[in-house]
Amino acid sequence: QSKDTEERLKVIPKFCFPDSEDWVPTSELKSETFSFVLTGEDGSRWFGYCKKLLPESKGKQLPEVYCMVNRLGCFNLFSKILDEVEKRREMSPALVYPFMRSVMEAPFPAPGRNITVKSYLPGAGDGSIELCRPLDSRLEHVDFECLSKCLSVCHLIRVCASLLLERRIIFVANSLSTLSKCGHAVVATLYPFTWQHTYIPVLPASMIDIMCSPTPFLIGILPFSLPQLQDLPIEEVPIVDLCADKFLQEVSDENEILPPKFQAALIQILEERNEILSQEKIFSQDVTLNSLVSEAFVRFFVELVGHYSLNMTVTERGERIFQREPFRKSHTSRSVRHFLDLFMETQMFAGFIQDQELRKSGIKGLFEVWALQYLETIPESEP
């Protein structure tokens, strides 16, 4: 094992028990499913999925956590596995390990495919469960329902705008699962761009000093860690209370980051999401909240940067080179050009362009498909 791998393995228990400093023995505890992300020195990520529960026993005791670590992020799939772990744990700890062995031996499903895991469960025959992986990777690690319940549309837009400029952001919630789901969901709104920086859905209290970092981060904390923030240099860091839907601390320019016209169109779709979903069901369209929210942001980015391919030139050696200044100037809107001035300096934009420069013809995601359609609708003199 490499030193980096060893270091990541050592900190896993801290992320499994991020709230251990606030524990007291109890006889009642609602189980929680949450996750964490470990980033290596090379930028690779491990996803940890946890189920926190109270063992079946008489009297007060401390909770226990079951954890699965994987290089692929798929929250819903692992959440289903952990629900099965809890079901078996309630019957007998001896039923957990054969089931987990069956899961580990099963092939990880390909996108859009199902696999069946068999494991004996008293009263349920062979105890088979179906595990499904979404066809579209955009929706693999996402639950927008929790995010939409916690944050109003205007607050969500402010958070996303801050992330697009790669600012530091802190989420606060009294639930591990709320921090996990909202963190993963808000990062997913950035597609086709990828958050390149520190991302810790639930920060263990013992690692609070990480917030002193001047580099961008998205970090979630539990309320008992709030007093510790007072002594840290984070005056310019937005702090968002997910349970109260309010900013405990803000920079104050979050509403002015995105181009007004594009922001208004995005807000309208998100505000009317329930009406749109109801209308789609009338026409038997298989549209979910996850796909609706995700596609609203994809459309937003298509109209902002979907013309990037018009500013790719090919050298004599066949290399694709992005022309930055023509790309920025091609928008007639001053507010869009101002946003692009800032956004084009971020690592997520640089990473996106690098991927496009190196891209060979092949599978296209939703953004690429819609960007091509968008190019067909605009005059040649415009982006």
What does this structure look like?
The chain has helices at residues 3-16, 75-91, 96-105, 144-150, 153-164, 176-188, 226-229, 260-271, 273-282, 289-305, 324-329, 334-343, 347-358, 366-375; strands spanning 32-39, 45-53, 64-70, 114-117, 129-132, 169-172, 198-200, 217-221, 239-241, 246-249, 312-314, 320-322. The chain is an alpha/beta fold and 383 residues long. The longest helix is centred in the N-terminal third of the chain and has 17 residues, at 75-91. This is DENN domain-containing protein 2C. GO terms for molecular function: guanyl-nucleotide exchange factor activity. Residues 1-363 form the UDENN domain.
Mean pLDDT: 86
CATH fold description of the largest domain: Beta-Lactamase
Which spans of ≥5 residues are poorly predicted at pLDDT below 50?
none
Domain count, please report it: 3
If helices are DSSP runs of H or I spanning 4 or more residues, what is the number of helices?
Answer: 14
Shape: globular
- Secondary-structure-derived class: alpha/beta
Radius of gyration: 23 Å
Organism: Heterocephalus glaber
Pfam families: dDENN, DENN, uDENN
Domain UDENN: 1-363
GO molecular function: guanyl-nucleotide exchange factor activity
Layout of secondary structure:
Layout: H1 3-16, E1 32-39, E2 45-53, E3 64-70, H2 75-91, H3 96-105, E4 114-117, E5 129-132, H4 144-150, H5 153-164, E6 169-172, H6 176-188, E7 198-200, E8 217-221, H7 226-229, E9 239-241, E10 246-249, H8 260-271, H9 273-282, H10 289-305, E11 312-314, E12 320-322, H11 324-329, H12 334-343, H13 347-358, H14 366-375
Helix pairs in contact: 2-3, 4-6, 8-10, 10-14
Pfam families: dDENN, DENN, uDENN
Protein name: DENN domain-containing protein 2C
Keywords: Guanine-nucleotide releasing factor
